[in-house]
Amino acid sequence: MQRRNVLFGLAGAASMALSGCAGLGGPPRLTLGEAEISRLMERHFPLERSLLEIFDVTVDAPRLRLLPERNRVAAVVDVRLLNRVFAGRWQGQLSFDSELRWSAADQTLRLSQVRVQDLALANPGTLERSTTERLGAALAERVLEASSIYRLPAERLAQLRAKGFEPAGVVVTPDGLEITFVPVPPAAAPR
Predict the structure, then answer these.
(1) Taking a C-beta distance cutoff of 8 angstroms, is the pair 121, 93 a contact?
(2) Domains (ranges, CATH) in the chain?
């Protein structure tokens, strides 16, 4: 229920911002600050994925930092890996950066072009640390790539479209994530 309230609050803020921006020229925009983005991302974590039917990977909620000069976000997350074949377990901290893209197909904000900067494992076990960390970094990139960090609720999308707009893109700025809204294309007239 709390998740829903946060998302409705965000969507409500978007509607107010859109109505206030519509007369200023150019496409309307909504900027989400770093704290709000972090709250939204926390709702989608921990992220649990299986890879190659060998590894189970769990990624906890990220600690986020904006990189507006590169149009990316950086994050540090706690990560756990389980090797189901050899019963190996590792945990550590992962640092990565990523672009963000808006997916119109399902109205989500997703990680894109994820690049792991560092993976430090607390317990590499009997495996050589550098080999384990390289493998873990490659797995983490696969787990995180295209992960959804926010989904616009269908009812809010309907409300935005009724006002003539829909989300189209996202840019990282010093103030936060700037979501651009574009006019909804007119529906083809029935014949």
Answers:
(1) no
(2) 2-183 (3.15.10.40)
What tokens were used for 47?
């992220």
Terminal CA-CA length for the chain: 43
Residue 172 identity (one-letter amino acid): V
Strand, coil or helix: what is 70?
helix
Preceding omega of 46 cis (within 30 degrees of 0): yes
Distance CA 100, CA 154 (A): 21
Quote the DSSP letter at residue 147: -
Could you tell me the CA-to-CA distances from 108 to 50, 82, 133, 174 in Å, in that order? 22, 29, 30, 22
pTM equals: 0.74
In whole angstroms, what separates CA 153 from the centre of its chain?
15
Interatomic CA distance for residues 153 and 60, integer angstroms: 23
pLDDT at 28 over 80: yes
- Identify whether the C-beta of residue 14 lies closer than 8 Å to the C-beta of residue 160: yes
DSSP one-letter string for 25-47: SS--EEEE-HHHHHHHHHTT-SE
Q: Which residues pair with 181 in a beta bridge?
A: 167
Render pLDDT for 147-179 as a digit per residue (tens, 0 to 9): 888 888 888 888 888 889 999 999 999 999 999
